[in-house]
Structures are given as structure tokens and as C-alpha cells.
Amino acid sequence: MRAATGAVKGNAKGNAKGAERADSREPQAGIAMLAVVVMVLPILFVVGSYLQTMTGRNNRLQLEVKEERAMLVAESGVDVALFQARSGVLVAGPHAVYHYSGSLTGGGSYTVVATYLKGDGIDNDHNGLVDDANEDVFEVVSTGTLGTSQRRVAAYLGFSPFLLPATSALTMVNQSPTDITINGSPTLSGRNYTVAGALVGSGDTYGISIEQPAPTTRITSLLTAGEASHVTGVTPTPSVGTSSNYSAATFNSVVNQARNAAQIVIANGLINSNTTYGNAITGPQYIVYRNGDLKINGNMSGAGLLVVNGNLTISGTMTWKGVVLVTGNIDAANGTASVYGGIVMGPTGSSIKMKGTADIRYSTAAINLATRLTGRYVALNGWQEITTNGGG
């Protein structure tokens, strides 16, 4: 009996101690759990902040990529305007405006407005002058859109001609000309005339010039005293100087470009009838090209740029207002010639013959008339971003 009683008491004590140990472990487990939570919370906060930062950065990067792509789309619109300009589609004139739009295969779309600034009666460049030479440009505003991102740029296309100006009434590219014959009373005048034949009173130049590095003696040595008196201009007779506009390569390049740009090609090298190629006052004016010698027996008149890729012989009457390029020799000893503007003889042209009814008179107005025919608004004078609209 005592033994049973002792066993019961022993079990009761054991159970009590086990319960005490269990009760003591529960607070320890809670403390451990709290410690884990305390340790994990900062890590979770750091991870959450990192994820939030990376998400925001990724969104910003995506937005920046969209904006840069929108800028590239806007620049593509400027390229479209340049292509149209090179094609001769952008024609200058008061209030001339052209619109273009399109989409790119890689995404995005552009809209372009090309506006000619000169002649609109507005001081567009804010320099205090209305419609001055600086405003002889097309302002091209191109807007590129990609999704909700949009960029806008303004570019300015200036005039760029392939024809270099004649610097005197007669310019000789050949470094060693062999013959300049002046019979009677012809005129090679560097005085500046209008296309109507009136003296301007300013802008005078030489009667004859030769391209550098050849010295002026290459010309003066070919002139007698009587011939020298007919070469007038900005200096005492003979009014002779040098020029640096045309090298042989430059001259040949201009001839080739004129051939490609010519509106009129003279197929027959002999002109016997009355032929007219434009008018300097009422227009139109032309680029006229002859591939080979040209002989004028009849009456030929015109305005603009005349290019003879060979010799020019005038036995009839020739009246031209603008610029004449001749790759070979000029013989006007048996005809009547009147040129207002300038004549440029190429590197293979060594001889010019003139008589009393042949006159070459310098004219900046006539030269400018020819120059305008040979250019396009393709000179990129700069561009700038004018607005930015970033989207998501």
C-alpha cells in the first residue's frame, strides 16, 4: 500500500516538474519568435525599398528610352524635309508652307511643317530687320511622337547653290591662255550693271580675271595697248585681277552638276532660227546645257545659266542675262554678242575673240538670277529642341 502510494506521489511530482518546464519554454519560444521578427523586419524593409527603387528606376529608364526614340522620330521628320528640299520640292516664296507626315516601321510618327521665313513681313530672327538676308531660310518644325512621349525640334534650311559666282565680266580658269583678240570697240566691263542695262553705281569688279595662282601678267601680256583700253572696271585699264573661286576640278564639277540639273538640253549644235530660253525680267529663267560645240547663226536670247561643254561660236546674235560657262574657246568675231552677268572659260579654253558688237558686262543681279536656279534649301544651319512632353 505504501509502495503504491509512493508511486503515485512520484508520478505527480514528475508531472508537475514537466509542466513547469513546459511553462518555462513557452515564454522562451515567444521571445525567440519576437527576436526573429525584429531581425526580419529591417531586411524586409530594405528589400521592399530596393524593389520600389528599382521599379521606379525601371519606369524612368523606360520613359527616357521612349523620349529618346521620340527625338529620333522627330529627327526623321527633318530628314524627310531635307529629302524634299534636295528634290527641289521646297520652293521659296512669301508665305510658302509645306506639310509632311508619316510613320516609322519601328514605331512612332512624325508631323513636319516647313515654312519659308523671308517675305512674310515679320522680323523672325528678332534682329530688328524685317525679311533680311538671314531670313532666307525654311524653318522646319518636326514633332516626333512615340506612345505618349513627344519631342519637337526646329531646324533651319538655308540656300546652297552649286554655281560659284563669276568674279568679273570674263573669268579664265586656264592658267596659260594663248589668245585674247579685241577688234573694234567691244567692251569687257567690270562695272556693275542691272539686268536692264543701267549702271548700279557700286559693286564694280575687274573686266578680266584669271584664277590663282596664275599672275595677271598671263592676261596683260596678251593685250595690245588698244585692246587693253576696252577692258574696264574697278581699276584703271586694263582692269585685270585674280580670282580664287574656280579651280579646274571645281569648274568641271559645276559643269557636271549643271548637266544633271538642266531644264533645257540643246540637242543640235547649230542654231539657225530665232530661239528664246527665258527672260530676265518676266521669267522664266533656265539652266540650258549643250554637250558639245555650239554655233549660233540665228538669233538666240535667254536668261539663267548657259553651259557649253565645248567651243562657243557666235556668227549671228546672242543675248544672255546670267552666267555663261564655256569649257572650250569663244569666237565672237563675226557676230553680235551681249552678255550681262559673267562668262567663265574652263581649263581647256585658251582663246577668246571679240569684235565691235560683242560686249560682256558684269552684273551681280544677273549672276544672282543664275545662282538661284542652281541651288536648293539643303544647308542645315542648325537645329534646336523647342518643346518636350514626356509621357508614360
Count the strands? 23
- Derived structural class: alpha/beta
CA distance, first residue to last residue = 90 Å
Shape call: elongated
In helices, the fraction of residues equals 25-40%
**Main sheet properties:** 12 strands, parallel
Any descriptors?
single chain; 392 residues; alpha/beta; 2 domains; 12-stranded parallel sheet; 6-stranded parallel sheet; 5 helices; 23 strands; 35% strand
Explain what you see:
The protein has 392 residues and is α/β, with parallel strands linked by helices. It folds into two domains: 77-162 and 376-389, no CATH class; 168-373, no CATH class. Helices cover 30% and strands 35% of the residues. It is built from five helices and 23 strands. It has helices at residues 2-86, 217-220, 225-228, 248-261, 364-373, and strands at 97-103, 109-116, 137-146, 149-161, 168-172, 179-182, 187-189, 206-211, 231-232, 240-243, 264-265, 270-271, 275-277, 286-290, 294-296, 299-308, 312-314, 317-326, 330-332, 336-345, 351-354, 358-362, 375-389. The strands form three sheets. Strands 5, 7, 8, 9, 10, 11, 13, 14, 16, 18, 20 and 22 form a twelve-stranded parallel beta sheet that branches. Strands 6-21-19-17-15-12 form a six-stranded parallel beta sheet, with no helix packed on it. A five-stranded antiparallel beta sheet has the order 1-2-3-4-23. Strand 1 (97-103) and strand 2 (109-116) form a beta hairpin. The chain starts with a helix and ends with a strand.
